[in-house]
Every structure is written in structure tokens, then in C-alpha cells.
Design goal:
Two copies of one chain form a homodimer. By secondary structure, chain A is α/β, with parallel strands linked by helices. Chain A is built from 16 helices and 13 strands. Helices cover 46% and strands 15% of the residues of chain A. Chains A and B meet through helix 1 and helix 3 of A and helix 1 and helix 3 of B.
């Protein structure tokens, strides 16, 4: 069958077989299907979607395009978490040690940040010495030994996805639900997990702006997981404001370490990160152990509060060569002051994300360099009462010339109201519980 | 503006500006817009269509991608004809000399046949010596001097269309009305014509199977012509059976020459070709002279019957180096016999076209060679009464081994009925008259 006949079928809403999808993806990876045919196919998928059979075939052929981690069946469950991305979203650094401390194994493949959202890989790289790019054998060995290992996403896992994603990015075919789902889920399934907890975010700082869109994505992702043998549950959570206290790589590591070590000089700001980390860890434990969420929450809370999670984290970072004592945070700071009296009514996370990029803490292109030491501290949250001239954010950046642009962007991101706004709800809904 | 933003707009039904379409096409020709972006754009156009502004910008930028012929304004009108393609469709060879004999100028750019339909360029090349690939200056000079010149389609005219068409062919984006219209009309407009007559065909031997589809295409083509300053009229004509007596390159030249010279040993078969040629020529004259169709028909008929059209044809072919006396027709023939008594109820032109390809008279790929001497003679038409064993088609082919496959395909193409079928109507409708 000619590839153009296959594109035509998708264009004309005629279902493709598993063999047809497989030959398309295999040919694309091998180079016999050129980019221009794949991009036309992706656009046809944007318009006409994919059937269950097509989606499963797509995920399987993307997995088969690379290596796949396999874990021995045992009582120690293998689980991961995926977040759709947000600002200050650092829960992976806390929940993974919690789950490992509770007996699970977390083979966590981490990606870089792009656009306004951060990436776990960049955060880990702000710990000097940390080796993120391991062989799959080493990754598997460490996960088995320590209950957790972080791995930088490379071409070993799902190279078809890497190639297809780069193409979609430049052909306006990113926003296709089946393609998004296949891209996310193929990489997770290839890690060899049996269980997956999704943190699907909505709000000003998320890709999905409404809870409805977030739920739609969540259901589609869960469906792909289930049809490929992975049990999935989901939390729909708010990104209506940045998560927790810090935005920026080393600053977020500092926040996580302080939460895991039990420090709490301004607990109201740390509580949010701790709450979501515990909740997601509990969802992972509940899946892996088959226990109810209340029991799992108690176990997760105990693992965090007792310091056991931090013990795991220290061991894992140290095993990966990292030196937590060497983290560098920018010495130069600048406070952003409230322009008037009032309550903080909204904080646009996307704008804060771009302010972080201005400071060098994020990137617009995958090849942009990053300043791990810079970032933003949130001194206020939605609902905070402020007086004119009071510090509301603190900028950390040793390159003073970058501060001005970030400062004006931060001020643009905050909206004030006279009356107290409705309480901000962090965890909107559970699915698959 | 990034090209992916532009693709996204089309994908999301946001109108593009003239500048945006122009930069897309210019970039595509220059090579800065890669094939994979253009194919995604073409697929988005397949789904979402194009606005009037977009279509006009597309046509103009395709024209501007190459050279453009310009004719001096004068009383001698400049007109061309375009047919959507059929079997035995040889009218260009007769109507152009008629129009030239009536005072018009016809700068006719001719394409090769592909798939089941033939092309004027191949027919002309069956006349030994004919030089079809001229410079645009020579083309223009000859058109002015003789009232007619034939030019093979090359990369000088609308190279953007050439590149885009090749891409659409392998990305399942051919069947898009705005892209089809732009492809056809840009080349015609670039010839420097003021007037255009369209012969839009429907039926088993045409791309458009119903009169409704043919009319839809005709209206879309006419719209593009009018918005680019070319006055257009259209005949919707039948391709429910092959046109006239012969299918095949040299055989069709023979038919045209005999019609123009006044030969008529079996007039009922020549009448059809003559009738449509006169009608289309009359439509061209009516446009060019602004006279009514009845007057124009009288002029066209007189030009043909008086032999003046043939004089022009001879001069033009001779001026282009062709030697009409050297035409070679296959010596080896084989009659296809009626398998039963009855009336001919239907002749599937598409099947006959593929039979002609089997004989070497057509091609499946643009690079396939052609045997100009081979073809098929139609001894019956819809409505003909035949007896079992009577010859109904005659195959011409010097490569005897090719005959068998063609013969069985021809037999498959014919349907017989006991009662006389309804009369076949050649000219279904006029538009823009």
C-alpha cells in the first residue's frame, strides 16, 4: 500500500488497521516515509481523530521504535507520575522519594522545560554533579536497588515520538488529542511501569485553560493507558497560580529539600507543594498496593514527615553523583512591590513562566542555555492581603540587566481586587479512583 | 510570522491575508518553506477551504513564481480553452485553428496525459519534427503572427504550481477544490489571455462523475478567472463515452486532420468531435468578440468547413517544425468483436483509457515512455445496434503481446442492452453565456 493511500484513508475517515499504522510509523523512523507525508497525515489526524485500534497501534509502534525497560514481576509495584506541566511544579522531586519509601519502584524519565513550563530534568541538573543520562541497564538497576532513579529523556526510548514531536511542532499539528496522548503515554509505558498517576493541570499557567479541557485530556490519556495494560488514575489540579513558593531550578530544589527535611519558616507557602506531593504519592501508592486513598495518604504523609522520603532522595541523588550541598542560588535579589493596597485576585502563571525565561531560568527553544540559579519567589498567593509598597515577589538573578523586563512582566501577571477573592482550590477532582 | 503560525490559522479557520499566502508560496519556491510545512498546509486547506482573498493571492503568487506572457492590447482578442480531461478529447487541435482563422490569438500551453486521460502535448509530439518547447518570446511571436502557437508546459510558467502539484500527488491533497482551481487557472492566466472557455467534463471517463460535481468545479474555476481579470465561460460536456472515433496520439491527429480537411467516410463518428470543437470555438469567439453564440457558431462553422482552419493548422505545425505527412499509425490491428446481439448501452471511458495505456498510448507515471502509433478505434457509440461477432472496436498496436490485455479490458468497458438506450447528449449545459 502506498503511503499516500493511507493518508487518504485517514483524510476520508476510513479506519486504518494496526498493520497500516505500524508500517507508517516504522517507515517514518526508518526514513522511507518522508516528513512531508507524515505531516500531512498528522494534519488529517488533527481533523479526523483516531480510532481505538489506531491509537493503540500508534502507541505500540512508537514504543517498539526504541528500547523498552522491563521490570521483574514482584511485590514491589512499579509506578510513575506524569504532569501536563505548570509553573513551580516540583512535586516529582518529593512524591517519587515518598513512593519509594513506601515500597514502590519509580523509574522516572524526566524531560526538559520548554516555553512557560519548567522541566524536572533542568531542576535535577541544578544539583552539581548529578548524572541524568544513564544507560537503561543502570537506570533499571538503580530503580530496583533504591526504589527510584531519574533518567534524562533520550533517543533510546521512543525515538519515533522524538522525531514526530519535532515535526508536529513546526507543522501546527501539536494540538491533536490522540497524538498528544500517544506521545505522553508511549514514553511512560516504555519505562516498564504497571501503574501511572496523572496530574492534569488547568488554569492560566497550564496548557489546558479550563477544568473541562483538562478532564477531556485526562480521560483520553487514561484510555490509552488502560488499553496498553497500564492502570491509571488522575488528579485534575489547579494551575491558576504557581505551585508553592519558588519558580526556578535551584530554588525549587531548595523548596523540595526544605519540605522533605521538615523546615517550615513560612508554612503556608510550603503547604501547597507538600499537599499536592502527598496527594499524588498517595494516588500512586493506592494504585500500586490496591489500597484505598485514605490509607495511602496516611502512609505517604508518614513517609514524608518521618524524614524517610528525604533519606531516599539523598541516597538517589548521591547515587547519581549529585551534591546537594553545592546548589547555587543567585545572590542578587530584587523585591517587586505591590503597586496598591488590596487582595491578590489572580496570578497568571504563564506570564510568570515567561518572566522566569527572561531571567534565564527557562527556555523558548530546546537549545537555549539555562541559568539554574535564577528564579522568582512568590511572597503572596491568591487571597493574600497586601499594602502598597509591600514586597510581593522576589527576583533572584545575578545578571542585573535581566531583572527589569522580568519585573514588569511579573507586575502585569498579578491582578488585585478590593474584596477578598473566593478561596483557591488546589485539587479539583479525582478520576479513576 | 512563523510558517507554523500560518498553518495553524488555516487549520483553525482564521482567514489569511494576501501577504501571508504570498510569503508562504514565495518561501516554498525559494526553499525556505520545507515540503513538510507545505503538505500540512495543503491538508488544512483540504479540510477548511480557502477564502476569495486567499484563492486570489494563491493564484497570483503562483503566477509570479515564474514568467508571464503579456500580449499587446489590440483588436485581436487573446483566448484559450481548458478541458478537465477525457478520452479521445482532441478538440484543442481543431478549435484553436478555428479561433485563429476567426481573428483570435490562442497561446496554447499543452500538458502531457496522465492516468486514463490523454494530453494535447503527446498528441502533437506524434507529428514528427514538431518542436513544442519554445522560448516564451518565440511562443509569443508565433501566437501574434499565426494566431496560434502550441507550447509544452515547462518550469518557466508557474514553477510554484509544478512543485506544489508534485507534493500534493504524494500527500493525498490533490482533491481540494481551491487547490485544483489555483493549479489550473494560474497556468492559464500566466499565458496572458483575456478570455478562457472551459470544457468541464462529467461521466465515466471524466474525473467528475456527475454533472453536479462538474458544475461545482466549473463555478469555482470561473470565479478564480473572474477575480483575476479573465472572462470565462463554460460548457459542461459528457464523457459518458469516448469523444469521436479514435483514442491514441497519432490516430487522434489523423481524425482531426480528416475533419479539418473535410473528409467524412463515416460522418456519424466524426460529427461528435466536430460538433464539440465548433461549439467550444464559438464560445471562445463569442467571448473574444463580444458577439452572441449563434453568430459565433456560424463564424466557427464557416472557418472549419471552408478549410481556413486547416490552413492555419498546417501553417502552425509547419512553423513549429512538424511534418504532418510523417505521422505513423500502427500497422498491426485486431478487431474486438461483439460478444452478443444488442444495443451499446454504455462505454466506460476510464476503462478504455487504461486499455490505451496497456497499448502504450498513455502513461501511469509522468516518466513512462509513450508509443504514439498505437490506440483504439471506436466502431460503435452508445445506441449502436450490433450483432454477435461484429467488430465493435479496432486495436492498433505493433507490439502484438500488448493486445490481449487491452482487448479484455475493452470488452469489460462495454455494456449491452436489449432495448435502445436513451440518446446520448454531448453538451449538457452552458455557464457564463
Amino acid at each position: 500500500m502506498l503511503i499516500q493511500e493511507l493518508i487518504k484513508k485517514k483524510r476520508d475517515k476510513i479506519d486504518l488497521s494496526t498493520e497500516e499504522i505500524t508500517s507508517l510509523i516504522d517507515g517514518y523512523v526508518a526514513g522511507s516515509v518522508p516528513d512531508y507525508q507524515m505531516s500531512a497525515f498528522a494534519m488529517a489526524v488533527f481533523f479526523n481523530g483516531m480510532t481505538e485500534v489506531e491509537k493503540t497501534a500508534l502507541v505500540q509502534s512508537m514504543i517498539n521504535s526504541g528500547e523498552r525497560v522491563e521490570f521483574e514481576k514482584s511485590v514491589r509495584f512499579v509506578v510513575d507520575k506524569h504532569s501536563t506541566g505548570g509553573i513551580g511544579d516540583k512535586t516529582s522531586l518529593i512524591l517519587a522519594p515518598i513512593v519509594a519509601a513506601c515500597g514502590g519502584r519509580v523509574p522516572m524519565i524526566a524531560g526538559r522545560g520548554l516555553g512557560h513550563t519548567g522541566g524536572t530534568l533542568d531542576k535535577l541538573e541544578s544539583i552539581p554533579g548529578t548524572k541524568i543520562f544513564l544507560s537503561l541497564d543502570e537506570f533499571k538497576k538503580k530503580t530496583n536497588e533504591l526504589g527510584l532513579c531519574y533518567l534524562g529523556q533520550t533517543g533510546q526510548i521512543c525515538p519515533a515520538d522524538k522525531k514526530l514531536y519535532a515535526l508536529r511542532d513546526v507543522t501546527a499539528t501539536v494540538e491533536s488529542l490522540p497524538l498528544i496522548c500517544a506521545s505522553i503515554m508511549s514514553k511512560k509505558i516504555a519505562e516498564g511501569i504497571s501503574f501511572l498517576t496523572l496530574d492534569v493541570k488547568y488554569g492560566a499557567g497550564a496548557f489546558m485553560k479550563t477544568t473541562q479541557q483538562a478532564e477531556e485530556l485526562a480521560l483520553a490519556l487514561m484510555e490509552v493507558g488502560e488499553s496498553n495494560g497500564v492502570r491509571v488514575n488522575t488528579a485534575i489540579t489547579s494551575m491558576e497560580q504557581p505551585l508553592g513558593r519558588f519558580i526556578g531550578n535551584a530554588l525549587e530544589i531548595k523548596e523540595c529539600v526544605e519540605i522533605m527535611k521538615g523546615a517550615s519558616n513560612q508554612p503556608e507557602f510550603y503547604n501547597e507543594t507538600a499537599e499536592l506531593s502527598i496527594e499524588l504519592a498517595a494516588m500512586m501508592i493506592s494504585l500500586g498496593k490496591g489500597c484505598d486513598l485514605t490509607q495511602a495518604r496516611a502512609q505517604a504523609t508518614d513517609a514524608l514527615k518521618s524524614g524517610r522520603a528525604y533519606e531516599v532522595f539523598e541516597k538517589v541523588i548521591s547515587a547519581q553523583g549529585g551534591d546537594l550541598s553545592g546548589i547555587k542560588i543567585a545572590k542578587n535579589t530584587k523585591d517587586v512591590l505591590a503597586p496598591s493596597d488590596g487582595h491578590v485576585a489572580a496570578i497568571n502563571g504563564e506570564q510568570l513562566g515567561y518572566a522566569a525565561i527572561n531571567l534565564g531560568a527557562g527556555r523558548l527553544k530546546t537549545t537555549d542555555p539555562i541559568d539554574h540559579s535564577s528564579g522568582i519567589e512568590c511572597l503572596v498567593k491568591i487571597g493574600s492581603k497586601v499594602s502598597k509598597g509591600e514586597p510581593i515577589f522576589r527576583i533572584y538573578c545575578d545578571e542585573a540587566n535581566k531583572i527589569h523586563l522580568a519585573e514588569s512582566r511579573i507586575l502585569d501577571a498579578v491582578r488585585f481586587s478590593e474584596s477578598k477573592p473566593p478561596e483557591h482550590i488546589l485539587i479539583h477532582k479525582h478520576l479513576g479512583i
